[in-house]
């Protein structure tokens, strides 16, 4: 039994080593795996390498990518930060962008972010308006009236306008898309999959940090 265990353990170690070696051998190529944004877009957090995910709660691919976004956040060094950009590709997506900005403004994204994804894509709830979303977030402890008034505020209107402006500047035409430090754009298609997008994002972050030290 011990001998069999040691053989299995050795196999797992070898497999992990091969996997790590394969990751190290990956040659990320500009214009193939990621794209340069020219001119670069100023980041919202000067002094930090900003990783931005352009997403929508209405996007099923974004819901599937969320665990990988969490991986990216967990792996970021202290010199980097992670932010979201809710995009509006059509009028039906606008309530979801409002919901994100309202949650951000109220400091309740820890309650609302995953709850909205789950309601739409796991529970198949018909969330079609900001009122529908406000009623949903009330079930996770957020004041419905306050959330709704914030979602319709001038501040959120400004966020929506600025978001659409940045959408064009980044050259984003699909979700989810990752932007690294306002300079590089990638998605799962260019990277080769969700796990690869996590690895490529980490590589670009490291590249930016190393460049800043020169």
Describe the structure.
This protein has 214 residues and is α+β, with helices and mostly antiparallel strands. It has a single domain, classed as Glutaredoxin, CATH 3.40.30. The chain has nine helices and five strands. Strands 1-5-4-2-3 form a five-stranded mixed beta sheet, with helices on both faces. α2 packs across α9 (194-212) and α3 runs antiparallel to α4. The termini are far apart. Mean pLDDT is 89; it is low at 1-24.
What is the structural class? alpha+beta
Rounded to an integer, what's the Rg over CA atoms?
20 Å
Measure the end-to-end span: 54 Å
Number of domains: 1
Secondary-structure arrangement, i.e. CATH architecture: 3-Layer(aba) Sandwich
Overall mean confidence score, pLDDT? 89
Strand order of the largest sheet: 1-5-4-2-3
Low-pLDDT stretches? 1-24
- Globular, elongated, flat, extended or rod-shaped: what is the shape? globular
Order of helices and strands: HEEHEHHHHHEEHH
Strand content: 5-15%
What's the number of extended β-strand segments?
A: 5
CATH class: Alpha Beta
CATH superfamily: Glutaredoxin
**CATH fold description:** Glutaredoxin
Discrete helix count: 9
Instruction: Report the biggest beta sheet as strand number plus sense, adding barrel if it closes.
Output: 5 strands, mixed
Helix content: 55-70%
Give the key terms.
214 residues, Glutaredoxin, five-stranded mixed β-sheet, 9 helices, 11% strand
